[in-house]
Amino acid sequence: MTEHSTAPMIATSSEPWDAIVVGSGITGGFAAMELTRRGLRTLVLERGPDVVHGRDYLYEHKRPWQMPSRGMLQRRHLDEVKPVQSRTGFMHPGMERWFVDDTEYPYLEDRPFSWIRGYQVGGRSLTWGRQSYRLSDLDFEANAREGIAVDWPIRYQELAPWYDYVEGIVGISGRNEGLGQLPDGNFLPAMAFSRGEEHFKSALDAHFDDRMMTIGRTAVITQPHRGRAGCHYCGPCSMGCSTGSYFSSQSVTLPAARATGLMTLRPDSVVESVLVDETTQRASAVRVIDRVSKEVVEYRGKLIFLCASTIASTQIMLNSISDRFPNGLANDSGALGHYLMDHHFKVSARGRLPGMLDRYTEGYRPNGIYIPRFRNLNKTSTQPDFLRGYGYQGGSGRQSWRGREMQGFGEGLKDQLREPGPWTMGLGAFGEMLPDAANTMKLDAAQTDAWGMPLVRISCEIGPNELAMRKDMATNAVEMLEAAGATDIKSSDRYTPGGIGAEAGLAIHEMGTARMGRDPATSVLNGFNQAHSVANLFVTDGSCMTSSACQNPSLTYMALTARAVDYAVDAMNRRDI
Amino acid sequence: MNHSRQWTPADPDQPHARRIGRRQFLTLSARALSTMAAASLLPDALAASNPEHAGDLLTSTAGIENARVLSQICERILPGTDTPGAIEAGVPDFIAGVLNIVYLDAETQRFVSQLSAFNAATTTEYGRPFDQLTTAQQDNRLSAMASDESSNEAAFFAELRQLTVYGYYTSEPGATSEHSLTDYMAPWNGDIAYDDVGRMWTG
């Protein structure tokens, strides 16, 4: 290559890796751990910079007065650099850097869709909400039962042992409740309710036969677990947790993979495409653009796991064009890029609970309560206006000074703000979003990012089923608070057509676009997350989801990942791959 | 289990327990002694509506006057009692940081305009600027401001109160003297006797 050449330099690594994992977040980390434990030399590619567990948690255990600007950020910076990521309300000195700069990673929204991303080693496992719930056959059978989209190729019994396995590693605290729609699990001791939540639960049990409340099932350990210390209840997990009490790639899976001596982790590696050997119809290599130097490198691998996150993994597949796959890798069906989903939320209610002013709480519990789905479970709970259902998350505590209604000023104001306010109880719903072919992500070839990747163009919005469900979400939240004797109840639904506030993507549970299915003509992946048409390609992040259910999805992604690795390595050993 | 978190009066040798006069405060402001990451000077911030004052620091007449007024407003919102007041807790410097770092330029200019207008109206009514009124007069003026729904004064008062409250209870002097310091290693307990704590947790 001469110095005048504009062609990128392509360096090809000589030795093929047993496995290449794209992404180091919650599924990439799990894939890396499982693959290396099975003895595979594994290359993990992360597009963002490295984050070192502990050392890089700059604001862990900092008091408000030790924070830059007491935790406030420059509005101009947020408006100009992070206009989309700011929609989450998560922007804080301790968290802001775990979210991408929208200026550096642009995408196109036909309708408002918040694509919230964390491009660093560990990905969004550093900032996730940690709520961890199993799906049930109510979810896996729903599409087939209702004739919507395509059937899931798996049922609960096939995934159950993998939920057991993953929960055992992650460490989920929670309580078994014997519910069909929310299967029990392999839990560490549950966190306690607050006094206000006990009050609310009693009222719920007394007034409603069709629903119950449990403590959130959360990936925060409540006792020492596999070499990690139990939670010390300091508060905001996403500032980082050097004791590893909450599950992240940094705290669990990447150290385990590293300990095998078989993992190589390469940060700053933007995956441009997956290359295919036209004769064998196998994925042969991954083409990487160095984030900093822009150097192009190709890594050959025997097994490829795409764990780059929903949308990002599909972006790579759509950008992987070959004679065999002119419409994107493994896209014989044309389903790739379609059926994008999220959970729809931002329907909430809050009220003031009576009395109990002689009681208080101590410590910061990184968890809340959960009211599992109670709609459309059976004939008696069938709803005339909508399919599927929703669950509530929430909690109760005494009001702090933040956001408190204040009277006057002077010594009287000091007196008001010296004592905690009344107990309040809040509920927020997370609802299932139906898969719809019209909810898409595509590549816009006319516009590229700094690495020459075509920009993602997203067109996605909730539909009539979700809108009808939202009315029920709001009504029931208010009714339950009323039953608990709450006063000053305020409810809100932040959705507006075409507006910002409850737009798709904001729940950060985006999923679909490379769905699993039984039929290669209508789906991208089979029941083991294996591409129907590329035997050594697996996609195990949220892209694979055939429907969204209403439960927080990360636990399911991890269970699917562990199961897919087990299947893939067995198949390799049988020389089927 | 002992949950008591008894507050004890601050050690007089501790910085936040020192009484700081207005002149001394302005000097402190000018030295930018605050927890803000890049706090600039309060008078400077408060002269922001007039770009030609930028950098004038204490020579900026408008900035100094507004700084005095703002400091006194903060202090009347959360006055020194047996615990530090807003000035001692560094609230005016905190607000300077908000104006210089957090707010958009237009917001800062709007804020300074409203502060100047408030002081001009005060001077018209009382014959002297807000910072030269007695505390009783200052309280009367703030009460009128808080209840004046016909102009934008009530909304401005709400903003000033919000900033003062935030700056005070996130400051070390304010939080630790008025509230009970949370223990980062305390186990979660969802139901304790309030009397064992006796005041709100910091947060």
Distance between the termini of chain A: 36 Å
The total count of strands of chain A amounts to 22
Look up the CATH topology of the largest domain in chain A: FAD/NAD(P)-binding domain
The average pLDDT score of chain A comes to: 96
In whole angstroms, the N-to-C terminal distance of chain B is 22 Å
Overall body shape of chain B = elongated
Largest interface: A-B, 51 and 55 residues
Strand order of the largest sheet of chain A: 8-3-2-12-22-21
Helix count from the secondary structure assignment of chain A:
11
Strand content of chain B: under 5%
Q: What does the largest sheet of chain A look like? A: 6 strands, mixed
**Radius of gyration of chain B, whole Å:** 18 Å
The counted number of beta strands of chain B is: 1
Rg calc of chain A: 24 Å
Shape of chain A: globular
Could you say what the CATH architecture of the largest domain in chain A is?
Answer: 3-Layer(bba) Sandwich
Q: Give the SSE string of chain B.
A: HHHHHHHHE
CATH superfamily of the largest domain in chain A: FAD/NAD(P)-binding domain
- Uncertain parts of chain B: 1-41, 48-59
